Amino acid sequence: AGNNEGNVTLKSALSRLALGAISIQLLASGPWVIESHSQAAATRLDESASEKLPELALYKRCFTHLTGRVPSRTAPLTSKVRSGELKAVEACMALLNAVTLDTTTGEATGTSSLLTTGDDLATLKYQVLRKFNDFHRTWFGADYFFNSGATLPDNQIYDETGPALYITRALLAPATYSTVVTYSGELEGVRTIGAQNLNNYSYVGTELTRFHNYVSGSGVQGSAIQSGATPLGTQSGNLLGIKPLSASRAALTVAMRSDKPNQKTVHNHQGGGILGSVSYLLLNFGLGQEQATDGGLYVARRHAKNVFKDLLCRDIPPLRELDATGFVNSSPTSSTPAFRTSATCMSCHAALDNFAGTTRAIYLSETPYYTTGASSFAPSVHLQVQAESSTYTAETTPPDSDSNFGRRPKNGRLYFRSYDGTLINESVTGLAAMGAAMATTNDLYVCAAKHYFEYFTGLSVSLQDTGNPLSSTLGEAEQYYRDQVIQLGTSLKSHGSLKSLVEEILNLDLYQSRSQRKNFVSTSSSYSRSARTNNSPRNSGTGTTR
């Protein structure tokens, strides 16, 4: 151009071309949100944008989710999908449905009329078992004794992966999902090496009677473990199955430092499935050793908080501030915990402390220190349970500090806001009753659906109470995925089968689409808004090959 006006026009045109090229790059690059020019633009779900995978590719996707490996090209099941004899989901569900737990040995077993010897079900059954158990372990934030107040010897007695076993059992055994919070005993993993003799455990090349002797004064005194028996620890090696704790392991008793030489049962499940399993309590209890609960500063809040997070998918605060006003102490004394005077604080504490009333009798105790030759080691940590006494009646108001709190009735309350804003408020006594109350909620099942949905799609969904002023507003995509998870969860509550939940997810258009994302298109602009955001990256699925 020969003048300034022409130069401006040319520069403007070039700028628009450059911006167009950048826009194309952004649209193709993945996790970006492209907004319409119109701030009030309406959007609609563009179903045509979801390209479905071919059946063989879909089979590879779901097979990988089930086993953690790609299917053999020559396996008969793969050939049936390739030829069209079976649909992808039919083939994957044939594999999953074939894997069960033997009712006697607890080992994984596999039988199916659709799978033949060439499909190697003898190997696949263990891969399915281990893949899902590893997935179920990811539900729990606390998964390592040494980071949770227990000690190194504890992982020789208890299975750190114990909480996940309850969920894997619900998937593969003839058991409904509600059993994860209603089963009344300890489970153990059946493993390749089996249970070890705790009296013959080698550490750094030195044989130590680690659990046998303890130190009192200057010498070895007494026995920490019961005599005349072979004390068996947790099984080790690769996971082969899941079964109720064997009688020989359930009989293990040890002496505690606080009341030696009295023997105490080690595997004393407290009811409520995962809630009262010894491993979950040790991993999450949160109070120091020999610290009894007092109903004020000292209650098992960490256990309650993690139950809400792990099994109900609820972060704190699980209540709205107005729900907590009835628990605020309006006439505090010098002994009243400070948090009891604030409605903001009580929006957490009213839920957690009421829940913790069910674990009041429990405290952690350790075996006495011991020595062997020139070596000495930390003791193991176990649950102690105070006996309830009729002398101490139920409290009528929350105590500031009560030394007999653990001897009173284990009264508690399941008190929180559901994902849909419903206030759950149910009085219970003990962890078994707490688990039964949780099993009646929608949240237990919708939370399980959230975990499974994220595993199979890579999409993390918020289940916070959207009516809480503290909750963030959900976008169209987030609300769409949340609605799908809620529908899956309520379906799980009705039928109770995790295998059926998996089948429902595999049959979703979302799961079968190439991108595993939905696209929302503005009705007043040529630009579209993708349902894939930075918070839900395309390849965040666990164990997925795409």
Task: Please provide a written account of the structure.
- With 546 residues, this protein is α+β, with helices and mostly antiparallel strands.
- 34% of the residues lie in helices and 15% in strands.
- It has 17 helices and 21 strands.
- The strands form ten sheets. A three-stranded antiparallel β-sheet has the order 1-20-21, with no helix packed on it. The protein has a two-stranded antiparallel ribbon with strand order 2-3.
- Strand 18 and strand 19 form a beta hairpin.
- Helix 5 crosses helix 7, helix 10 packs across helix 12 and helix 14 crosses helix 16.
- The chain is flat.
- The N terminus and C terminus are likely disordered.
Shape: flat
Low-confidence stretches: 1-6, 21-41, 201-224, 371-375, 525-546
Q: What's the number of helices?
A: 17
Summed over residues and divided by their number, the pLDDT gives a mean of: 82
Q: Please list the strands of the largest sheet in the order they lie side by side.
A: 1-20-21
Bin the helical content. Answer: 25-40%
Strand content: 15-25%
Largest sheet features? 3 strands, antiparallel
- What Rg, in angstroms, do the CA atoms define? 28 Å
Number of strand segments: 21
Secondary-structure class: alpha+beta
Walk me through the topology.
Elements: H1 4-29, E1 43-45, H2 55-67, H3 76-83, H4 88-98, E2 99-101, E3 108-110, H5 121-137, H6 154-157, H7 162-172, E4 187-191, E5 194-197, E6 201-203, E7 206-208, E8 214-216, E9 219-221, E10 232-236, E11 239-244, H8 247-250, E12 253-255, E13 263-265, H9 278-284, H10 301-312, H11 321-324, H12 343-356, E14 362-366, E15 370-372, E16 375-377, E17 381-385, E18 411-417, E19 423-429, H13 431-439, H14 443-457, H15 476-495, H16 498-506, H17 509-512, E20 519-522, E21 528-530
Helix pairs in contact: 2-4, 4-16, 5-7, 9-10, 10-12, 14-15, 14-16, 15-16
